[in-house]
Amino acid sequence: MTSAQNESQALGDLGARQLANATKTVPQLSTITPRWLLHLLSWVPVEAGIYRVNRELRAQGVEVITSHLLSEITPEGLRIELIESETGTFFSLGSAGPTDNGKQLLLLLAAELGKLPNHVSIEGHTDAKPYIGKSGYSNWELSADRANAARRLMQQNGLGASQVSQIRGFADQLLRAPDDPLSASNRRISVIVQNLEAPPEGAEKTAEPAKEGQPAGASQPREEAPKPE
């Protein structure tokens, strides 16, 4: 199979996956309306960019990163999750500076997302283990600093200067694995490619990505994180 055929097959798989996930993302819809289907399929080119990122990572011999890169459609837009490992895949433990792997992935994402007209918001999340280090510095500052470090690197390498609409630091308030608050999977950067227009009627205004042990589409309140001093 040629590279073009592989990408064409991948795009077909992405479209099928979006449709399969639709009823999970918006559980109150008993049927998928044509407008909602078009909304889902509008994200296929974006996910194609993520496919190209994964392909490039594999070509560079760092396929291990791809298992920590997840994406899903939410009512807010396409959520891309960079999920940490126990030893720190994208950020070293306790550090706001990205690792070489983290830089590599963020550069590739910036190149793809910079081609889009969509605005982007970036979130930082930690696990529930209290930060030990600088006095007066906590998981709130760490999560916000990591999100801002990702923003800075991406805007220096392809993401438009006006594309970023928000930087959010949530500390451990939105755990991905609420039943295991110390799990490394709670430590993550989330890049949300925001909808160009409101999703079809029936979609909730805000929704968190599927968490371990929690149905997809479950809503969580959002609050702006305190800004680091």
Descriptive notes:
The radius of gyration is 17 Å and the shape is globular. It has a 5-stranded mixed beta sheet with strand order 1-2-5-3-4. A hairpin with a 2-residue loop joins strand 1 and strand 2 (77-83). 34% of the residues lie in helices and 14% in strands. It has a single domain (3-194), classed as OmpA-like domain (60s Ribosomal Protein L30, Chain: A), CATH 3.30.1330. The model is unreliable at 7-12, 14-34, 203-210 and 213-225 (pLDDT under 50). Helix 1 crosses helix 3. It has helices at residues 3-25, 34-41, 44-59, 100-113, 139-155; strands at 69-74, 77-83, 120-125, 164-169, 188-194. With 229 residues, it is α+β, with helices and mostly antiparallel strands.
